[in-house]
Design brief:
The complex is a heterodimer of chains A (about 160) and B (about 160).
Chain A: H1 3-24, H2 27-48, H3 61-66, H4 75-83, H5 87-93, H6 97-120, H7 125-153
Helix pairs in contact in A: 2-4, 2-6, 4-5, 6-7
Chain B: H1 2-27, H2 37-57, H3 62-95, H4 97-117, E1 120-127, E2 130-137, H5 140-150, E3 158-164
Antiparallel strand pairs in B: 1-2, 2-3
Helix pairs in contact in B: 1-2, 1-3, 2-3
Classes of the chains: A mainly alpha (about 160), B alpha+beta (about 160).
Chain lengths: ~160, ~160
């Protein structure tokens, strides 16, 4: 009677360890970690470079070639200003900056939440992935629609 | 040995996936869309090598396939950016470039004429001890004043020839 609880605890501990190890080899979780990492890099980039100093290393190739600004010009400035809480100025730099920023922020949260749900609910993993694909696709289309229209308008 | 081969394929797959995501984000942003073709090709190469290794060691290919698909889609979007720039440049050329070139030529012409109007031209010819110096000064601003004073009496250039020996 005294041995049983001890055994169950050790079993549950083992099970948790195995789940985490198995989770790191799951393609879905690797994808989530990779995407979250890329979003973090974008946020760090926007945080490091200042819109006041204007020291952004990336220039618009499109503008250099055609001489006309494109629909995504000022996006780096816009992101930096949103991170600093200067929303009005961010809209002035790029009108689509806020929706793109919200997309990335939402994707970061979704990666965390969906990864947790994926690990904690092994029975409904396929359903979870289908929800994720649908939601992310809709979010992507909503956020990037002006850019996609701009790209495919000329194709 | 089999595990090592399997890990190698997986690592390449993860690298391809990360590069593919970066490429995709770059490709859908018109500012940097054109240069996304370079990481796009790198993604496809990484995924292809990883896929061949995974096939040899019979290891899972989920991550590698994800990286390959994202890489191909991102490269295609990036490639389409070249058409965007090309079409844009064509439209730009046919609509605005002739006007702009005409404006630039007119500006340059006006500047040259304005400079020549105010210029003083001096020509010196020396032949041994003989020396001929010709000074031509239009001095438009001065002449305009003079014209105002004389009410259009003298409009020709002021030419003086000095011959010294």
């Amino acid at each position: 009677m005294q041995i049983q609880p001890v055994m169950s605890v050790s079993l549950s501990q083992n099970r948790t360890t195995i789940d985490l190890k198995a989770g790191l080899t799951e393609p879905y979780l690797i994808f989530n970690i990779a995407l979250a990492g890329v979003i973090m890099l974008i946020m760090i980039y926007s945080g490091i470079f200042s819109p006041d100093i204007n020291n952004y290393p990336v220039v618009c190739i499109h503008e250099k070639l055609t001489g006309e600004p494109c629909v995504s010009c000022g996006l780096s400035h816009s992101f930096s200003l949103i991170l600093r809480g200067r929303i009005d100025e961010a809209y002035q730099w790029n009108q689509n900056g806020m929706r793109i920023f919200i997309f990335f922020a939402a994707q970061f949260l979704m990666r965390v939440v969906f990864s947790g749900a994926y690990l904690s609910r092994p029975d409904s993993r396929k359903q979870l992935i289908s929800y994720d694909i649908t939601g992310s696709s809709l979010l992507f289309l909503t956020a990037f629609m002006p850019f996609l229209i701009y790209i495919f308008k000329f194709c | 040995m089999e595990e090592a081969k399997s890990n190698s394929g997986q690592n390449l797959g993860i690298a391809a996936l990360v590069t593919g995501i970066i490429t995709f984000v770059m490709a859908v942003i018109p500012c940097v869309g054109m240069i996304a073709i370079i990481p796009g090709i790198i993604t496809i190469v990484l995924a292809a090598v990883g896929l061949s290794q995974a096939q040899r060691s019979n290891s899972p290919r989920g991550v590698i396939m994800a990286g390959l698909i994202i890489g191909i889609v991102a490269t295609l979007i990036s490639f389409s950016q070249y058409f965007v720039a090309g079409k844009f440049a064509k439209n730009f050329e046919s609509d605005k470039w002739p006007e702009r070139i005409e404006d630039i030529v007119n500006d340059v012409q006006e500047n040259v004429v304005r400079d020549l109007e105010d210029a003083n031209v001096s020509i010196k010819v020396e032949d041994g001890d003989d020396k001929v110096e010709i000074n031509v000064g239009t001095n438009k601003s001065d002449k305009e004043k003079t014209l105002e004073e004389l009410e259009g009496a003298d409009t020709t250039s002021n030419v003086s020839i000095i011959v010294t020996k």
